[in-house]
Task: structure prediction
Amino acid sequence: MNTKEIMAQYEEFVIGTYTRIPTVIVKGKGLKVWDLEGNEYLDFFPGWAVSGLGHCHPMVVNAVRNYIKKIIHVPNNYYNMLQGKLAQRIIENSFSGKVFFCNSGAEANEAAIKLVRAYGSSKGKYEIITMQNSFHGRTLATMTATGQPKYQKGFEPLPAGFKSVPFNDIKALEDAVTDKTAAIMLELIQGEGGINVADADYVKKVRELCDRKGLVLVFDEVQTGMGRTGEMFCFQVYGVQPDVMTLAKSLGGGLPIGATVAAGKFADVLKPGMHASTFGGSPIACAAAIAVFDAIKKEKLLSNTRNMGKYLVEKLNGLKKKHPVIKEIRGKGLMIGAELTVEGKDIVDNCFKEKVLINCAHGCVLRLMPGMIVNKKQIDTAIAALDKVMP
Ligand SMILES: *Cc1c(COP(=O)(O)O)cnc(C)c1O
Result:
């Protein structure tokens, strides 16, 4: 089948929830992907950071290949060889506590929301305060937690117990807390919201507010986690520890896996029968995620992320001098946004024609999140394409 025929097949049989770029991706390696027609692209936006180590990282491929011959799925009424090992790896790299496994970011946040509700229920606390322009997923609860009405429209009635306040505004947050408030949930860098970076002082004050009022602090690190911002987790960039952290996206090196990490005091809130996920923590997904941790360490990808992130920002600031359409460069590590004075869609489309894949968030913020293995030469290529297509 050719590209046109595959598109027609989607048109007829796949529910049209996505706006898709008209190309069929058939192969990936490192920062390169190829389409059905043999075109090669440089991928600076590998699946919202899902392929955070680049496509088909050999350590991930090997781990999956070796384990899948043994067994593919082990249900959660038994133990498997790798779920505990991955949980230990996550805890040793974050904070002491325990992990619940699922398959996506929305599910990881859903588990966090249930944990918060379970924790607060005996005290009559259930309300969760989130941030405007946040993104937490597409299930009913996580879509309601998401502080962007555009995702909620038409799906009312929304579940009760959520409200959102302006990001980086400690006063608004303090004012929103009531005796029903159970938790505050936020992304340290809002991804879908347009790479909005939390102020260091704000994050400290949010932690203090939670301590003062006995609120659970939840960091959604679904997009920022696993090295993306130059530390294993973004909370480490801030030096502020959450009570609950959620992960997904690049955790499995491309395979679907999500995790809800609960610090000590909250680690035993969810008890047998209170929550579950049929596929959660399957040995194959865990094998892949363990390989991701191993690869980040072995290939020193955190320092590469910091160094290449600096280089990328430098180069983007160079572009900004030349093209007044670029308003601001922001982000941390390799999670970088370039805010424009215009809509970014045409620039993304024109980069695609130049065989460089990027993204646009929130209408006017170009988003660059190349695999953590990126090098200077690849950054130069992406910058040259951007330079060429800038209006
Ligand atoms: C993508 C994302 C989610 C949702 O993850 P899914 O795997 O699509 O359910 C939640 N939170 C953040 C911050 C995200 O970037």
User: Anything to note?
Assistant: The first helix runs from residue 3 to 13.
